[in-house]
Amino acid sequence: MVNSDIAYRHGGTPRSDLDRFGLPDRPILDFSVNLNFLGPPAIVRDRWGALLETIAHYPPVEGDGVGRYYQEKFHIHLENLLAGNGSTELIYLVPRALGFRHAVVVTPSYHDYERGSILAGTRVTRHALSPESGFSLSNPDALIRGLANADAVWIGRPSNPTGTLFPKQIILELSERCSQTRFIIDEAFIQFADNWEQESLLTQALRPNILIIHSITKFYALAGIRLGGIVGDKNLIARLKRAKEPWTVNGVADAIAPLLLHSAAYEQETRIANAKERERMFHRLEGLDGITPFRPSANFVLCQWTRTRTLDHLLHHLLSNGMYVRDCRNFPGLEANFFRVGLRSPVENNQLISLISSFPDGRYE
Length: 365
Ligand SMILES: Cc1ncc(COP(=O)(O)O)c(C=O)c1O
What we know:
This protein has helices spanning 14-20, 42-46, 48-52, 64-74, 86-98, 112-119, 140-146, 168-177, 196-199, 234-243, 251-259, 264-286, 311-320, 346-357, and strands at 29-30, 81-84, 102-107, 123-128, 152-156, 182-186, 210-215, 228-232, 291-293, 300-305, 323-324, 326-327, 338-342. It is α/β, with parallel strands linked by helices. It has two domains: 14-40 and 265-358, Aspartate Aminotransferase, domain 1 (Alpha-Beta Complex); 56-262, Aspartate Aminotransferase, domain 2, CATH 3.40.640.10. A seven-stranded mixed beta sheet has the order 2-8-7-6-5-3-4, sandwiched between helices. The radius of gyration is 20 Å and the shape is globular. The structure holds pyridoxal-5'-phosphate (PLP). Pyridoxal-5'-phosphate binds at residues 86-88, 110, 156, 160, 186, 188, 215, 217, 223, 228.
């Protein structure tokens, strides 16, 4: 069983590492962030004046604009959807509203599945995947055995920070074989994946024991706006609605969601640019001494540092020169010097590669 660890464990904290190393504050090119590197779609800036008009009024109680986005984009019926203040709100709502007693988390994965479960009083155990298998679900039978006494399992697709995209067929088969277990599938990053429309569980017939969590903040680089949704069987969604606070999707966010339906060109540009950078960066990182990258499927690359005995050496070198990556040593299973590179523009990515290439071995022995 997992200890009651309810500390926050998010990235994006270059300042605290600058302090830790006693380095002076300076501008940092932050590769610890994993948002669309094109930034938000232009339509959000263009309409900002009109969006401001919404702030004097209460928004719809349940995020009607977000509902429209999911209805039109994914053809989801409103009875199968609940909008949230980012997917984070929904990650915390699910175990609380559905009263899970025991949840299994497939790890390494996003820490808030465990934190949300623990705060809801749920007992948490882990199904740990190994780097040797490329963090794939190589032993589904072992997972099924682990689910024997569990009423829920959390799975990220693609998983953060590993970047693994577990095959849809495996998830569907598991959910059939374990029909009494709720499968909470986090597709926060799915739109970055190749062939995402075929890959996503959002675009296919719903199953009674699968809930799909989705984020609008990653693909559209709207992390500060907070937008997301959960999709599933109407009875489960109704139970979630009964337990949720009203008005958590604010008026600006709710007005932005339907605007995103007019961003096809931006979406296409994102997919092309992201796929190109993902492939290119994977190979560039693979070519560096002492770095093992893992096959990515979203907009970030998990790597292991083996050039010196501690990742602190790389972090120190990068921060001293104005760059930062996500230290992943606080993810269970990634303590052995794993880090994550969020994709940025080609020019910035090249800057990171050349800075890592210039790692001064002699200085860190
Ligand atoms: C895998 C995963 N799911 C969900 C979230 C939450 O995102 P948001 O609340 O912005 O939708 C994150 C944020 O980093 C994440 O990495």
